[in-house]
Amino acid sequence: MTTSNKDILSAKRTIDKEIEALRIMENELDDNLIKALDIMERTTGRVIITGMGKSGHVGSKIAATFASTGTPSFFVHPGEASHGDLGMLTSNDSVVAISNSGETKELSDIIIYCKRYGIPLISITKNPNSALGQAGDVLLKLPDDGEACPLGLAPTSSTTATMVLGDILAVCMLERKGFSKTDFKQRHPGGKLGAFLQKVSDLMHTGKELPIINEKASMQEAILTMTSKMLGCVGIVNNSGELLGIITDGDLRRFLSPELLNKKACDVMTKNPKMITPDILVAEALGIMNNTGKGITQLFVVENKIPIGIIHIHDCLRAGVA
User: Fold this and answer.
1) In the prediction, which pLDDT does 242 show?
2) 10 Å Cβ neighbour count for 229?
3) Rounded to 5 degrees, what are φ and ψ at 100?
4) Among 139, 99, 134, CA closest to 122
5) Residues 32 and 174 grouped into a single domain
6) Does residue 57 sit in the same domain as residue 142?
7) Which positions ≥6 away from 245 have C-beta within 8 Å?
8) Cα(72)–Cα(74) distance, rounded to whole angstroms?
9) Tens-digit pLDDT profile for residues 98-145
10) Extended strands (E) in 242-316
11) Are 81 and 122 contained in the same domain?
12) Are 76 and 110 in contact (CB under 8 A)?
């Protein structure tokens, strides 16, 4: 067997072993999960995550996931806790302590502090009879099925299970709180994710920037409006202000003739143009532009058919949505 084939087999064994651990955890889920969620939901302060070594690294990720999905949270290193950071914990908080073995010595000061000041403690460990397992107000049990590491030493299956358990808690809390896309966006204003979660109302051109004329206006007025607003189009409205159609640069090229300036806007416009509402995501607006098959580069934003804004594909690209 070649080295590459051995590597593929090893990779598959690792995946299978970790999936097996997750299946065990799935089958062992019980009312303790509900009790842990109830504690977190009643917490008026922060959900403090702590753990040492690999458990600490996973705990940092769990705290970040909680914080970004509506459950205020941060990570406290147990070593630092023993040297002053215990002061970060208040009686309004709850603590999630992670230790695969349940016998991590560095957690002892946090455990004692929780007991002394009545701070709810959720234990995550594979060993219910360990110091951590016995100390917790609620125990969330990790699968005791060994590691994917062939030596049985490096945290692999156990850290994967812990990560998934953290995701379970975060998603359940998100659903309990009715956490929305808008809430998520407020916590992710930067980067690609923040860009994709922007709403059309965040980017659209409004007010005097809107290229709008009446259906009876001349094509000379239409061209002047299109040129001055520099959005590559002009919206055509009736006397009630409702959007009837749109004239784009492409329409001008199609109708280009000596008689063009003698026509009215309603004679040249494309009727019933695509319209969107201000509350949809910019990514959705870009999808509409890309999926019509007609090369649309701008969309009017309307409320009750009245145009209140316009968004151009260049606005989407500048915002990082592509």
Assistant:
1) 94
2) 18
3) -60, -45
4) 139
5) yes
6) yes
7) 215, 235, 236, 265, 266, 269, 270, 271, 272, 273
8) 7
9) 999 999 999 999 999 999 999 999 999 999 999 999 999 999 999 998
10) 243-248, 270-271, 275-276, 298-303, 306-312
11) yes
12) yes
| One domain, residues 85 and 134 | yes
DSSP of 103-148, one letter per residue? --GGGHHHHHHHHHHT--EEEEES-TTSHHHHH-SEEEEPP-S--S
Picking from 89, 110, 8, the residue whose alpha carbon sits closest to that of residue 47 is 89
pLDDT digits (tens, 9 = 90+) for 55-88: 999 999 999 999 988 899 999 999 999 998 999 9
pLDDT bucket at 93, cuts 50 / 70 / 90? very high
Q: Are residues 150 and 120 in the same domain?
A: yes
Q: Where are the beta strands (DSSP E) in the chain?
A: 47-51, 73-75, 94-98, 121-125, 138-141, 212-214, 233-237, 243-248, 270-271, 275-276, 298-303, 306-312
Q: Tell me, what CATH number does 243's domain have?
A: 3.10.580.10
Q: What's the total number of domains in the chain?
A: 2
Range of the domain at 209: 200-318
Residue from 217, 214, 215, 211 nearest 234 by CA? 211
Q: Is 120 exposed, middle or buried (0-12, 13-18, 19+ CB in 10 A)?
A: buried
Tokens of 279: 């509350």
Residue with tokens 């058919």: 305
Show Cβ contacts of residue 94 under 8 Å, excluding neighbours closer than 6 positions. 39, 40, 42, 43, 45, 47, 48, 119, 120, 121, 122
Which residues does residue 301 pair with via DSSP β-bridges, in sequence order?
A: 276, 309
Q: Is residue 194 part of a domain?
A: no
Cβ-based neighbour number of residue 207 at 10 Å: 7
